[in-house]
Amino acid sequence: MKNNLPENFLSFSLGWLPASALERYVAAMEKMPSPVSVRYNPAKAACKGMEEPDFIIKGPVKWASYGFYLEERPLFVSDPLFHGGLYYVQDASSMFLEEAFGAIEKKLGTGSLGEMKIRVLDLCASPGGKSTQLLSLLGRESMLVANEAIGGRTSALAENIARWGADNVVVTNNDAADFKRLGPFFDIILVDAPCSGEGMFRKSTEAVSGWSVENVKLCAERQKRILGDIWGALAPGGFLIYSTCTYNELENDANLEWLLSLGAEPVGPADPERLYRMGVLPTPGGGLQFLPGLVEGEGQYFAVVRKTEDRASSPSEAQVRRSRRRMSDSRAIGASCKAYSEDFPEYELILHDTFLKGYRKSMASEMLLVASQLKTVTSGLLVAQIKGKDFIPHADLALSAFMADKLHGENSGLPDKYFKTVDIDRKTALKFLSREPFMLENAPSGHLMLLYKGCAIGFVKNLGSRVNNLHPVARRIRNTALV
């Protein structure tokens, strides 16, 4: 080991760096601690907690509008605002997607992607950092498919998506090759590929001890397979964002070159000089590199390409007919939800078993098509559980951007026939989140939505003599010493 780095790592992976940049990187690895950063949720910007967070902000992340550095790392798990989806804890370098979108917007010359209706896939999405940033950059009429191939990682992804509050998402659990069923469906695909993790050396001793040239080569081949498998799901003229948290040529520029050979053209940054002034480095092969010592963040590489080929294969007619039948069946089921439709006019309501789900009418067909073709973990908005005549609001409804609009937007207000709201303090919020017993004195009876600093964190049913906690058991704070 040299400077706590694997032997041969500097020459193998960072030999392309200018000497001055290499010196600054080594110094950062020896002396500089990892910065702490969060990214706010603009869908919940009107919450009081946005102005009164439970931590001290140090300054902004230059390449992410909603990203901020913190003075020190708090215990996020004990912050109710974190559980309410007001912010996401993410390394600053990983917040590069705003710059990638800027490059695409410049190439298209049509203004903001947030004003367009597009289909986006985050292929390797768990635990959800980049998916939640994508949701903040996209308009609500666009659809995101957040996929994770490893089944054991999908629950964390689904929970983080639920906290963020978006309803224009389908969370799936599929291999890259499975997306061929959809044909050239997506306008943008993000492949944040599994890699050797060189950019995480400052945070992870496992990444350091597990590094070897052989592992780098294995990762590069796996990345190439993933890119090859997903390429057919990208529409002609669509964009692929490729990223890793590593530095070496095999996993980065060599795979970018291979992508170009598939029928793609490179897409450069919207304002390269601005990026360079912020410390982001251009790589020899045309990518962009975030490097500790040059930026206040960990290691991250990304590149954007555009699919130029005009050949397009589509799902078979039989598949299309089956998907249409499924959608027709779902709409028929939705007819039983008329009692609630006037209160959720933006949604097509569908009853799955006893659970009422909402799909935005503008994209319901597309979301149900994806759900019919892929192994789906969750989709749309979980509104409530219907038991007889009882409407039991679901935890995800409290966390939703829809509910944030009802609480703080211009068209505020949801009929109180479903539930009322009650403001609570931090101690009560933590008892709720850990599912510890608590009482709500002077609160109305029935279903209540709990607000901490204006941020909804969940539902209870107040019976007067006791409170039934509707916070999902799987999401509870397990360390009761924090309460």
Helix count, DSSP H or I runs of 4 or more residues:
17
Radius of gyration: 23 Å
Could you tell me the strand content as a percent range? Answer: 15-25%
Shape summary: globular
Main sheet characteristics: 10 strands, mixed
Average pLDDT metric: 92
Helix content: 25-40%
Give the number of DSSP strands: 22
GO molecular function: RNA binding; RNA methyltransferase activity
InterPro entries: Methyltr_RsmF_N (IPR031341), MeTrfase_RsmB-F_NOP2_cat (IPR049560), MeTrfase_RsmB-F_NOP2_dom (IPR001678), Nol1_Nop2_Fmu_2 (IPR027391), RCMT (IPR023267), SAM-dependent_MTases_sf (IPR029063)
Keywords: Cytoplasm, Methyltransferase, RNA-binding, S-adenosyl-L-methionine, Transferase
Active site: 245
